[in-house]
Amino acid sequence: MSVGSKRVSLTQYLVEQQRNHGLIPSQLRLLIEVVARACKSIAISVNKGALGEVLGTAGSENVQGEIQKKLDIIANEVLIEANEWGGHLAAMASEEMEGIYVVPNRFPQGEYLLMFDPLDGSSNIDVNVSIGTIFSVLKKPGDSKGVSEDDFLQPGTAQAAAGYCVYGPQTTLVLTVGAGVAMFTLDREQGSWVLTADEVQVPADTKEFAINMSNMRHWAPPMKRYIDECLAGKTGVRGKDFNMRWIASMVADVHRILTRGGVFMYPWDQREPEKAGKLRLMYEANPMAFLIEQAGGAATNGQTRIMELQPTKLHERVAVMLGSKHEVERITAYHLEAGAEKTL
Ligand SMILES: O=P(O)(O)OC[C@H]1O[C@](O)(COP(=O)(O)O)[C@@H](O)[C@@H]1O
Ligand SMILES: [Mg+2]
Ligand SMILES: [Mg+2]
């Protein structure tokens, strides 16, 4: 669908996609529209900042052992309330909730499962830097009675849809249902999502990497090797200079990569050797991997395609390397060469 003079709304885009690719049954379209509406409401809270008393901590801890921010909880509640009554969902799971949230049976039960990181980039909330919401959609396995946490433990390849909303200078919703990646900008006057980019492609090569450099001494040798070579630039084996960016909001770093290319890494490190990484597989890595792959990029944990990983628990963590295909392939090759002993 071409982004031309004619304004295309989110609903028009989804209907067209259904006509062209048959990938969006009505329940899934309804789900995506409801998530998009919830993101609009979260955007309003985010924009209020200190005026809306949404800054600062909530004083409680989530299942990850992180101090929750007020906006983590506000965004979580907005997504639950918006999605529980529509009849398109059986259950939800969130970074901010230990167990799954089964849609109360006073509401019609739907056939989809929704997972989300209600507020991504929490460390940037109080400093007015771009933050976001990330979501992933799965089908509830047909044969299961009721719904359980096990129903969620499906590989990323089973995702029916994935996306994020970035709350930055513009509010942008980025979406895939498995037929490419589209971007919608929120028209605040109209309160509507307008298609502003379609068939988004990530360039295979890049000169821009994103990683939290302050963790370098904790990385495994293949990771250090890759970054050392980038830093050596023209004088080293790469023969070209690299630039670095790190916003510390995954949504914003990935949005930059979907917009102009680049490679994003949050590798394993020996600060917490028992953890595979910092980021969560189900509602951070898998949805971002789906988007990046649909835009022609790649996403691995240093060894395996992230979308092929079989999840074992809801809040499982994973090492993440994603973005421009050739760089991700190089980083993965370095890990495999190193035999990946204890890098994952
Ligand atoms: O502070 P660090 O170590 O650079 O980590 C930043 C990373 O942590 C995150 O903030 C984790 O996500 P949450 O904010 O949803 O917990 C990512 O968005 C970001 O990429
Ligand atoms: Mg996050
Ligand atoms: Mg979060």
From TrEMBL:
<dbReference type="InterPro" id="IPR044015">
    <property type="entry name" value="FBPase_C_dom"/>
</dbReference>
<feature type="binding site">
    <location>
        <position position="95"/>
    </location>
    <ligand>
        <name>Mg(2+) 1</name>
    </ligand>
</feature>
<keyword id="KW-0378">Hydrolase</keyword>
<feature type="binding site">
    <location>
        <position position="212"/>
    </location>
    <ligand>
        <name>substrate</name>
    </ligand>
</feature>
<feature type="binding site">
    <location>
        <position position="119"/>
    </location>
    <ligand>
        <name>Mg(2+) 1</name>
    </ligand>
</feature>
<dbReference type="GO" id="GO:0005829">
    <property type="term" value="C:cytosol"/>
</dbReference>
<dbReference type="InterPro" id="IPR028343">
    <property type="entry name" value="FBPtase"/>
</dbReference>
<feature type="binding site">
    <location>
        <begin position="120"/>
        <end position="123"/>
    </location>
    <ligand>
        <name>substrate</name>
    </ligand>
</feature>
<comment type="pathway">
    <text>Carbohydrate biosynthesis.</text>
</comment>
<keyword id="KW-0460">Magnesium</keyword>
<keyword id="KW-0119">Carbohydrate metabolism</keyword>
<dbReference type="GO" id="GO:0030388">
    <property type="term" value="P:fructose 1,6-bisphosphate metabolic process"/>
</dbReference>
<dbReference type="GO" id="GO:0005986">
    <property type="term" value="P:sucrose biosynthetic process"/>
</dbReference>
<dbReference type="GO" id="GO:0006000">
    <property type="term" value="P:fructose metabolic process"/>
</dbReference>
<dbReference type="GO" id="GO:0006094">
    <property type="term" value="P:gluconeogenesis"/>
</dbReference>
<dbReference type="InterPro" id="IPR033391">
    <property type="entry name" value="FBPase_N"/>
</dbReference>
<protein>
    <recommendedName>
        <fullName>Fructose-1,6-bisphosphatase class 1</fullName>
        <ecNumber>3.1.3.11</ecNumber>
    </recommendedName>
</protein>
<feature type="domain" description="Fructose-1-6-bisphosphatase class 1 C-terminal">
    <location>
        <begin position="202"/>
        <end position="335"/>
    </location>
</feature>
<keyword id="KW-0963">Cytoplasm</keyword>
<feature type="binding site">
    <location>
        <position position="278"/>
    </location>
    <ligand>
        <name>substrate</name>
    </ligand>
</feature>
<dbReference type="GO" id="GO:0000287">
    <property type="term" value="F:magnesium ion binding"/>
</dbReference>
<feature type="binding site">
    <location>
        <position position="117"/>
    </location>
    <ligand>
        <name>Mg(2+) 1</name>
    </ligand>
</feature>
<dbReference type="InterPro" id="IPR000146">
    <property type="entry name" value="FBPase_class-1"/>
</dbReference>
<dbReference type="Pfam" id="PF18913">
    <property type="entry name" value="FBPase_C"/>
</dbReference>
<dbReference type="Pfam" id="PF00316">
    <property type="entry name" value="FBPase"/>
</dbReference>
<feature type="binding site">
    <location>
        <position position="120"/>
    </location>
    <ligand>
        <name>Mg(2+) 2</name>
    </ligand>
</feature>
<feature type="binding site">
    <location>
        <position position="284"/>
    </location>
    <ligand>
        <name>Mg(2+) 2</name>
    </ligand>
</feature>
<feature type="domain" description="Fructose-1-6-bisphosphatase class I N-terminal">
    <location>
        <begin position="9"/>
        <end position="197"/>
    </location>
</feature>
<feature type="binding site">
    <location>
        <position position="117"/>
    </location>
    <ligand>
        <name>Mg(2+) 2</name>
    </ligand>
</feature>
<comment type="similarity">
    <text>Belongs to the FBPase class 1 family.</text>
</comment>
<dbReference type="GO" id="GO:0006002">
    <property type="term" value="P:fructose 6-phosphate metabolic process"/>
</dbReference>
<dbReference type="GO" id="GO:0042132">
    <property type="term" value="F:fructose 1,6-bisphosphate 1-phosphatase activity"/>
</dbReference>
<comment type="subunit">
    <text>Homotetramer.</text>
</comment>
<keyword id="KW-0479">Metal-binding</keyword>
